[in-house]
Hints:
Radius of gyration: 21 Å
Amino acid sequence: MKADDLADLTFPLTKDARALERFESHASSELQLAQTLAVESHTLAELRDALLPPLMDGTLRVKDAVAQVEEVL
Length: 73
């Protein structure tokens, strides 16, 4: 599903307070997970961008890269 597909989605409306609370509870946990995964993805992309060039040109070896990453974590 692409972001543009979201515009075509429809949702039933309800005034049932319990149903709204259940939806909010589920949706907020899903939103939190999405935010956490977005931060993790960004961090991994930064790590990849920092390590890949020196690995490719031979100025950094894999075992040295592992040691550097372990120092950060």
